[in-house]
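BUG-173 | component: ligand-complex export | severity: low

The export step for zinc ion jobs runs without errors, but we want the raw record kept on the ticket for reference. Input record follows.
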Amino acid sequence: MIIKLYDIGEGISVSGALDASTFKRPEDSDFSFLSPIDYELKIEKAGNSVWIHGPLRAALSLVCARCLEPFTFSVASVLDIELLPRTAAPGAPEVELKPEELDTYYFEGEEIDIGPYIFEEIVLNIPIKALCSESCKGICPVCGANLNIADCACEKAGSTILTEKLKAFLKDR
Ligand SMILES: [Zn+2]
Ligand SMILES: [Zn+2]
């Protein structure tokens, strides 16, 4: 999704569906995209910088933090970034970024590829501990059965191997 600076003019609206499968997911990620990322963006110039903003939406498959089953999750977010032209002074040392500058992005030349920004915004909004449902019962700590599907016969309250060991340990003291 390449935007040419020349085309922005007084501001443009771009919308469509971005194929997320062409982007590299973070290492160890246990999510996958079930849909392209829908975007509806406004792109405007403000002085030298370019402002890109608008809603994003995608359907993902996530793994429930409690029962470890995959489930469909819809991520919605708003992209709101400003890009500054990188004016590389020849021979100047790389300026170290201060924390408050980390949200500033840069572009070079006359084109901006907005795809990576769209992808990153969605990935940043994936919850770390997502649940398939607020009432997910999780898995049995003893036998590992998915308790959403069926109850198991295990004695649960305070009788996992770990708590038994802890009890024995505390008794010995
Ligand atoms: Zn679950
Ligand atoms: Zn069990």
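Assignee comment: Attached the raw record above. The chain has a mean pLDDT of 86.
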